[in-house]
Amino acid sequence: MTKKFVAGCILVCIVLVAATVFPVEADDGRFSSCFKNCEQECQADGRGSSFCEMKCDADCGAKEAAAKLNINL
């Protein structure tokens, strides 16, 4: 009986969390265009694709977060 009660409470909590999650707004392609430009420039400098992918993901992710928070980098 107790296991069913706990399982029911957990299920209700999951439903409530799922109902209150707000969809993320689209970034209008800012991240993807930043990433493509950064990756092309990085690979043109002779660096490997793995390095460029990690670098550009971090750089463009930071720029996207700053734009959402209205912070100038």
How is this structure best described in words?
- The protein has 73 residues and is mainly alpha-helical.
- It contains 3 helices and no strands.
- The protein is elongated, with a radius of gyration of 21 Å.
- It starts with a helix and ends in a 5-residue tail after the last helix.
- The relative contact order is 0.10.
In short:
The chain has 73 residues and is mostly helical. It contains three helices and no strands.
Shape: elongated
Task: Note poorly predicted spans.
Answer: none
Measured by DSSP, the beta-strand proportion falls in: under 5%
Provide a count of the helices.
3
Structural class: mainly alpha
What's the layout of helices and strands?
Layout: H1 2-20, H2 30-44, H3 49-68
Q: What characteristics describe this protein?
A:
single chain; 73 residues; mainly alpha; 0% strand; elongated
